[in-house]
Structure formats: structure tokens, C-alpha cells
């Protein structure tokens, strides 16, 4: 070795003051030079703690690609931790993809004799897709809700973070599924408000129920309401102006209830 | 830091888990003893804000847990809570789990949060296991990880529901050292009477949803003074008797048998005597 790292260089490196070229040369030299590595020891009195920190940093699992995408879009790091805790955002995204594909497949094959045809089946199933996606994000973290319930983090913010992340996959995929089936072209957007209403209703029920039970209750309620609507113009009534206005009103009312239960409920979430 | 429960009760349908109870918790370690179903977990859940009481008010450092959302949030900023059972998500690492809980405890700055996570991992002796997935940890390590999340941010009120379950004697001793040296208030529910005698400044005994005893360890021991005997034969009418390693029979309560001698009672003896006179009641 023709040169060695002195204390000043070590301090500059530790402070991140070296330019990229000098930093690379520094690292290559230190990697190959045991004398320089030995010389660094007096500068780091607690090497064990430093190594633990480096080890934790280096071996921390790499975030899944949806989270890396959200990071690039400027989502704060702490919000990514919350979203990522629902392990796997990939799970909810997978649920959204699978549900959208199944929805398109079923509606594409729906027999013409079915009352209302493929659009009716689509309008029945599509609003449940965001519910499934949201529930998938909650189901992973439900086991320790007793712990999270007693933290000061806003439960409304928690719900909205997870829901937004889930919906960013569920909504575009379901719209794409509708556009892929010719018979559904006119319905690709009309399911959105009912879907949003069911999602908010699910979030409200999550105050008291587990994710799976809450989604089952909402799904059963939606199917019961759809059956009851069969005599009043069928489920396609939601595509009319009155149906959309009614759905929008339901979203607004449920949103108020959600804010109330997440901020004023005595305990739980 | 002071936490108070004022006329707090909890009912599940017709079952009363906790009768109206008033307690004031000041600095120090308080042990909560009682049989299964005595209402210990209910009390801890109510105090931690995980469960709303049926009646009464709860305050932590002057902030009402049972009050407005803002008040409850302020109270939660001062609480560290270890539930009786923590079910971990399978995919998370020890570091990832604590990182998530730290975010929920409002540690937004990444560098400071990671430092805090490493600090509590070190406190519970899991510094070397930070990157291991929770599902690969042993039962004792998971329990220590659950304790670590309660220690995040060094809360003024630490509520621990049976923290020593699953820990070996060395780990229990280590936890005692950790808790005895920290400032603030610690409330521990436990079945381990030796933990109480080794660690607690004060003991509260719950039975059938009511406080049966509230005082210091010496005061609890005083209730059993002269009532524990050891000899060749059991004491007639004793609450409990057993043969010790020396071959002598230890009797708690009852009339001393001939030739037996009085011995110093333990917290367990005092607890057993207290329980022997406790009223029975239907409790969740």
C-alpha cells in the first residue's frame, strides 16, 4: 500500500464529506488494508453498537415494490411503515387483482337469462372488491389491535392510510376489468360510489369487529339490499342519477359516522 | 406521574368483571395479584384505554382516558401497555414490528425512531435478534419483544399484564432490574408472588372484581404474621399444607400442630390466607 488513511480522512468519511470518487477509493482501500481498519478502532469507542446499527440497517428487509413506488411519489417514510405493516400491501393488491379478474370473468360469462344480464352481476360484485382489498390490509394487523388501540396515532389517519393504499390498486383494476368486457363499457364508473360506501361502512364496523367478520357483514348486507332492490328496478337502479345521488349521500353520512367513531369511541381503534 | 381510577366498573352483559373501584397510582412499582377471573386484566385494559369502562373515570397524568378524544390521546402518549397476549404478524421482523409500533407512538423522525427501537431491543436483550422474523423467535424472545414495544418512548405509565410469563429465571431477574430502575409508574399484573416481593413497592389484591387488599409488601406480610407454621405434622384447619425439601410440613393458617414452629410468612402465604377469606363471586 502506497498510502494510508489518516484520522482526518476517517472523520471526513464518517461525516459524509468526501465526494463520491474519493469515497469509493476510500472504501476500496480500507476493504483491502487491515492496518487502516485497525487504525479506525480508536475513533469508534463503541464499535459493537455501531455494528448492530449497521447490521440492522443493511439487513432490514427491502420494501415491496408498491411501497417503493409510494416512496418515490413522496409519501412520508413513517406513513410507509404504517402501510407496509399490513404485510404485505402486496396481499391486498393481490386480492384486488384477483377479485377484479374474477369479476370480469364472471360477468363476461354471465348467462343472458340472468335478470339484468352481465351488468347486473358486475354491479353486484364490483363494489365488494375495494372492501376485500381493505380487509386484506387489516386482517394482517388485526392480531395486535390491542396494542395499536392504545397508541396515540390517529385511528382515522390509520384507517385512511391503509384504505387509500388498498384502493389505489382495487379501483383502477376494477375499472380496467369493466372496460375489458364490452357489455360493461357503460358501467365502468357507476360502481365507484356504492363501492366507496361499502368500504366506509366496513371501516366503521372495524371499530368493533374483526376484519373478516366486518367484511362478511357488509357483503351480506349489500347482497340483501340488492335482492330487495330487484323489485324496484333491480340493482341497475344505482346507475341512475337518483341511484348515484343516493350512493353519494350514503358515502357522506357514513364518512361522518366514521369520523365520529374513530375520534370519539371510548376505546378500541 | 399519577394515574387514577375513580369509581371505575366494567360489566359484560349481566356479568360484573370489575365492581366500582377507586385507586390512585403514584410513582413506583405496583403489583396486582389475584386469581384468574379476578378482574385484573379488565382493570389493566381500562387503564390502558384499550377498553371503555361501564362507569367511572380514568386519568393518566391529569388527562382523562375516559374524556374527549384529545384528552385520551394525551393520556395515550404517556402509556406503555403490554397485553396478556400479543399475537404477532408472521412476516414482520423484530425490528419491523417495533418500528411500526414506534410510528404509532408518534416517532415520525426515522433516525431517532430507529435509535429508539434499537435502544429497547437492547434493553430486553434482543439486540442481536433485530433482523430475525418474529415467527423464528422463541416464546420467551417473543414475550421480551412484546415488553420492548411497551417500553418505547420510556412511558410515564407502564402497564404490564403478566410480563414474566414464558421467561426463564434469568430473564425474569433481568426484567426486574429493568423495571426497578426506571422512573414513573409501573403496574404489573402477575401470578408470580416472588416477583411482587422482589420488585413491588405496593400490592393490590383483586378478587371477584373487588380490591381485597391495598398496601405495601410489609403490610401484606404482616397480615400473615404468626399464621404460618412448620413441623412434622400439618396444622389442623390449614388453608394449604405441603412437604418442603427439608422433610418438614409447612402449613398456612389453621391451628399449629404440636411441636411445630412459627416461620416467617412469604407474600404467597399472605395471599393464600387473604384468599381463604375472600368472598366468592361470579366474575368474567
Describe this structure in words.
In chain A, 71% of the residues lie in helices and 0% in strands. Chain A is mainly α and 269 residues long. In chain A, helix 7 (88-109) packs antiparallel against helix 9 (128-141), helix 9 (128-141) crosses helix 11 and helix 12 packs parallel to helix 14 (241-264). Chain A starts with 6 loop residues before the first helix and ends in a 5-residue tail after the last helix. Chain B is α/β, with parallel strands linked by helices and 284 residues long. Chain B has a 6-stranded mixed beta sheet, sandwiched between helices. A 4-stranded antiparallel beta sheet of chain B has the order 2-1-4-5, covered by helices on one side. Chain B has a 4-stranded antiparallel beta sheet with strand order 12-13-11-14.
Salient structural properties:
heterodimer; A: mainly alpha; B: 284 residues; alpha/beta; six-stranded mixed β-sheet; 14 strands; 32% helix; 26% strand; globular
N- to C-terminal separation of chain B? 30 Å
Largest interface comes to: A-B, 38 and 46 residues
Beta-strand share of residues of chain A: under 5%
Question: Mean pLDDT of chain A, rounded to whole units?
Answer: 77
Shape of chain B: globular
The Cα radius of gyration of chain B reads 21 Å
| Low-confidence residue ranges of chain A | none
Q: What's the total helix number of chain B?
A: 9
Oligomer: heterodimer
Output the strand order for the largest sheet of chain B: 6-7-8-3-9-10
Topology as H/E string of chain A?
A: HHHHHHHHHHHHHH
Structural class of chain B: alpha/beta
What fraction of the residues of chain B are assigned to beta strands by DSSP?
Answer: 25-35%
Helicity of chain A, as a percent range: over 70%
Q: Termini separation of chain A (Å)?
A: 62 Å
Q: Could you estimate the helical fraction of the residues of chain B in percent? A: 25-40%
Strand element count of chain B? 14
Count of alpha and pi helical runs of chain A? 14
Amino acid at each position: 500500500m502506497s498510502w494510508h488513511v489518516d484520522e482526518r480522512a476517517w472523520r471526513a468519511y464518517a461525516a459524509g464529506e468526501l465526494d463520491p470518487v474519493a469515497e469509493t477509493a476510500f472504501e476500496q482501500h480500507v476493504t483491502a488494508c487491515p492496518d487502516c481498519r485497525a487504525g479506525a478502532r480508536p475513533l469508534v469507542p463503541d464499535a459493537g453498537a455501531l455494528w448492530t446499527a449497521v447490521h440492522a440497517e443493511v439487513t432490514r428487509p427491502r420494501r415491496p415494490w408498491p411501497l417503493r413506488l409510494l416512496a418515490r411519489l413522496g409519501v412520508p417514510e413513517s406513513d410507509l411503515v404504517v402501510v407496509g405493516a399490513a404485510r404485505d400491501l402486496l396481499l391486498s393488491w393481490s386480492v384486488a387483482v384477483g377479485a377484479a379478474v374474477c369479476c370480469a370473468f364472471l360477468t363476461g360469462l354471465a348467462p343472458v337469462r340472468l335478470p339484468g344480464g352481465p351488468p347486473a352481476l358486475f354491479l353486484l360484485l364490483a363494489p365488494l372488491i375495494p372492501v376485500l382489498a381493505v380487509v386484506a390490509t387489516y386482517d394482517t394487523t388485526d392480531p395486535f389491535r390491542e396494542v395499536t388501540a392504545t397508541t396515540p396515532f390517529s385511528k382515522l389517519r390509520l384507517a385512511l392510510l391503509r384504505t387509500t393504499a388498498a384502493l389505489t390498486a382495487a379501483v383502477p383494476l376494477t375499472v380496467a376489468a369493466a372496460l375489458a368486457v364490452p357489455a360493461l363499457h357503460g358501467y365502468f364508473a357507476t360502481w365507484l360510489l356504492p363501492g366507496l360506501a361499502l368500504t366506509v361502512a366496513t371501516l366503521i364496523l372495524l371499530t368493533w369487529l374483526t376484519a373478516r367478520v366486518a367484511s362478511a357483514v357488509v357483503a351480506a348486507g349489500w347482497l340483501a339490499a340488492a335482492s330487495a332492490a330487484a323489485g324496484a328496478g333491480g340493482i341497475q337502479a344505482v346507475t341512475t342519477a337518483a341511484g348515484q345521488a343516493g350512493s353519494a349521500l350514503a358515502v357522506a353520512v357514513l364518512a361522518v359516522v366514521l369520523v365520529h367513531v374513530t375520534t370519539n369511541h371510548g376505546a378500541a381503534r | 406521574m399519577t394515574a387514577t381510577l375513580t369509581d371505575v366498573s366494567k360489566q359484560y352483559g349481566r356479568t360484573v368483571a370489575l365492581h366500582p373501584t377507586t385507586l390512585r397510582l403514584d410513582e413506583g412499582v405496583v403489583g396486582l395479584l389475584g386469581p384468574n377471573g379476578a378482574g385484573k386484566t379488565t382493570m389493566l385494559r381500562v387503564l390502558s384505554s384499550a377498553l371503555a369502562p361501564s362507569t367511572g373515570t380514568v386519568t393518566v397524568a391529569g388527562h382523562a382516558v375516559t374524556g374527549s378524544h384529545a384528552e385520551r390521546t394525551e393520556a395515550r402518549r404517556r402509556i406503555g401497555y403490554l397485553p396478556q397476549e400479543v399475537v404477532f404478524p408472521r412476516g414482520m421482523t423484530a425490528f419491523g414490528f417495533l418500528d411500526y409500533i414506534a410510528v404509532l407512538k408518534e416517532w415520525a423522525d426515522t433516525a431517532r425512531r430507529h435509535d429508539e427501537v434499537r435502544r429497547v431491543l437492547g434493553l430486553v436483550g434482543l439486540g442481536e435478534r433485530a433482523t430475525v422474523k418474529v415467527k423464528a423467535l422463541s416464546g420467551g424472545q417473543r414475550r421480551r419483544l412484546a415488553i420492548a414495544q411497551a417500553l418505547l418512548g420510556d412511558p410515564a405509565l407502564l402497564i404490564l399484564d403478566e410480563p414474566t410469563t414464558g421467561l426463564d429465571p434469568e430473564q425474569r431477574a433481568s426484567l426486574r432490574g429493568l423495571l426497578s430502575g426506571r422512573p414513573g409508574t409501573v403496574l404489573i399484573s402477575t401470578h408470580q408472588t416472588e416477583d411482587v416481593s422482589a420488585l413491588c413497592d405496593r400490592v393490590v389484591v383483586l378478587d371477584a372484581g373487588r380490591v381485597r387488599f391495598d398496601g405495601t409488601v410489609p403490610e401484606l406480610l404482616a397480615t400473615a404474621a404468626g399464621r404460618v407454621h412448620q413441623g412434622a405434622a400439618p396444622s389442623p384447619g390449614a388453608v394449604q399444607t405441603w412437604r418442603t425439601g427439608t422433610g418438614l410440613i409447612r402449613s398456612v393458617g389453621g391451628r399449629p400442630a404440636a411441636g411445630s414452629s412459627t416461620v416467617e410468612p412469604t407474600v404467597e402465604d399472605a395471599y393464600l390466607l387473604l384468599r381463604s377469606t375472600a368472598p366468592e363471586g361470579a366474575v368474567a
